# Entry
Amino acid sequence: MISLKTVRTKSVAEEPSRAVYDVASGDAEGAGGKLMVTRGTGRRVREALAEVLEGLPGGGVLYVDTRGVELMDYSFADEALGILASRVAAGEYGDRHVVLIEEDRELLENIEASLRQRGMAMIRVDEPGAKPEIVGEVSEHLVETLRTIYEAGSITNADLAARLGINHTACNNRATKLFKLGLIHRRKNTAAPGGRQYSYEGIA
Amino acid sequence: MNVRRKGAMRGILTLGSLDPAFEAARRVEGEMAVLDLQSVEFVEPAGLCGLAALLEFLIPRSRLVGLRFFGHDVAAYLERMDFFRIFGHRIETNVDVAALEERRRGNPGTLQELISFHSEEEIPGIINRISEILENKEYRLRERAAICATLSEICANAVEHGSSPFGAYAAVQAYQHIVSGGRERRGEEVLVAIADGGVGVRETLSRNPEYADHTASDNDALRHALKMGVSGTGEIGRGGGLAVVGQIAARAGGSLSLRSGSGRVTFYGDRNNSRNVPTFPGTFVRVSLPRKAGA
# Structure
């Protein structure tokens, strides 16, 4: 079992609760450490991550910090992060999300390969608060939409459509895809002029 | 049984040089079998793992298995690679193994002696150990990651798909010259080899009806197994390990060779070489990772 002592949970006023899980500091009983290999190890890490994720309030974000990991093979990456990303996207954790903290280095290749294989993606940051990047499979027009949402901080569907120069329905479709990939928060604003309207914001 | 084989690199024990012995082993029915290794001057990890797989195949069929060496050098190398620790009590030989043990010296290029493993749970321990050795030998992080990821993925494949009666054997050796390619060349190379006695790649992929068009022959199945996302279970996310190992080897300027059944495919990144070979009872993987100066 992975030790949860490495998890820091922080509640900030008017900000969704966040937790940081440092994978390299996981306990050393055959699972944790700097060398993350095999599906069995990946499964144990994923279970620990899921436990933390489930403990977060709605809208919470789990930051998975892999910067201390020296090696991650494809099997581990798929089992720990590929499956987790798929389950987040499938809505198994409600509106809780996962962000990867990792620098742009070779270790990312296996995470990227797993996510692409699954048609999934994750938000990656070099460090908490840094500029968000994407790992995995996202089509070019969705990348543009995602970037616009993150630059805006929070944006309504109407404003997003205007910035992208597309109609509201097309914009809503794009944002829905990003929401279903677990890459953005989506809120329903019923007080909007003309009825309900969605607003979007980044998760990292 | 003589391991010499027409066309094989003279004096080098590879899996290919063991083919005639595998063929002869099929005909053994309880009598004593003697494996003549007297022409062998050099053993690479592929030959070592191949020899281990051959003995696992031969020992149950034979009253007694004997190994014959010329001189002490090859036997001494096998001793340093823990070969006699695993097989010493199961075979008879013309060398004094106890004397070899007493004179045992370190083998500077050995990254992993011959190791037998049976389950995925053993793999992190194997990887931790080899990573420590590589770190002590001042391999760069990128090289360590490439060697460890290669070993972990093919070890995991061997125990996951193998259903092998003896599990799997692995060995890793670093050389101060390029061994692969038939003649010695300048440069450094790390060779990783693994052999199991399982059902083989074709049967594993045949469990997935989706691959019916890709399992007509062993070579078809091996070529297909190298593609991203191809696995016996068909689950999304599975079947990436071997493809990633192929990419690692290609990026290093090396190769990934697979043998299973009567197929043999070598993957170089931009091309595959495949040919029909005598049947190997299980699956065998050999990865060449040349070291690049300044990599």
